[in-house]
Amino acid sequence: MIQLNNIEKSYPAGASRYFVLRRIGMQVKEGEFVTIMGPSGAGKSTLLAIMGMLDGDWSGEFFFLGEPVHRMKPKDRIELNKRYIGFVFQSYHLIDDLTVYENLDLPLSYRNLRSSERASMVCDTLDRFQIVGKKDLFPSQLSGGQQQLVAVARAVIAKPKLILADEPTGNLHTSQGREIMELFKKLNGEGTTIIQVTHSEANAAYGDRIVYLQDGWIVEPPRK
Predict the structure, then answer these.
(1) What is the CA angle 75-58-21, rounded to 5?
(2) Rg of the chain's alpha carbons, rounded to an integer?
(3) Residue 196 region, left (φ>0) first, then alpha (ψ -120 to 50), else beta?
(4) What is the pLDDT of residues 7-41, one digit of tens each?
(5) I want to staple 82 with a disulfide (CB 3.0 to 4.6 A). Which of 18, 29, 44, 110 is the partner?
(6) pLDDT tens profile 41-88
(7) Phi, psi (5° rounding) for residue 218?
């Protein structure tokens, strides 16, 4: 599904450059559940943003479902993102002036679906996440944990081929976090590819393998 070759991301720093990612090469097969771990500032969220096509300012080769993303125009990358990818952000990224219902409906609006079909999918998702009573509220009226639940629901509602999750349980109670990880495991079992960034060993245990980043490089896993 994903092939990264020599991906680098840097910023000008005086007369030189500061590298966030260095010579990243990795492959993610369809149906895998991959965890990215490493200390703060290692480049984990940056790498996730590149794979989610939210960041186009990098060098190297990136193939997604055989498509050369590195050669694409920004609008074509956005279309690829909308069609295939669900993203769970650490800071929610819900749209403030849309209700919970409207936030969930948004990713479905990019698909070729009838309005009745979209309404049914939103209602099913509200029920699945036990947030039916919140459907007419705006994000500012929700707690942090509730906003994160809505963000996860929005990411999975359109049944994307790939889910990218940046600390998906960071703002949830332990039991809520476990439910989200169990949901990810179930979706993965049904064929959805999942890549998560986490500091949690418990969350990492749900995946098939761990990729470790340190100072922008992929490194060998630390010894226990």
Answers:
(1) 140
(2) 18
(3) beta
(4) 999 999 989 999 999 999 999 999 999 999 999 99
(5) 110
(6) 999 999 999 999 999 999 999 999 999 999 999 999 999 998 999 998
(7) -80, 130
CA–CA distance from 66 to each of 2, 3, 6, 63, 69 (Å)? 8, 8, 17, 5, 9
φ, ψ dihedrals at 152, nearest 5°: -65, -45
- Can you read off the two tokens belonging to residue 177? 């976090």
Beta bridge partners of 217: 214
Domains, the chain: 2-219 (3.40.50.300)
The torsion region of residue 150 among left (phi > 0), alpha (psi -120 to 50) and beta comes to alpha
Mean of per-residue pLDDT scores for the chain = 93
* Beta carbons of 86 and 163 less than 8 angstroms apart: yes
Give the whole-angstrom CA distance, residue 182 versus residue 27: 24
Residue 129 main-chain phi, psi, to 5 deg: -95, 5
CB-based contact 149:96 (threshold 8 Å): no
139: which DSSP letter? G
- Backbone CA torsion sign across 104, 110, 114, 115: positive
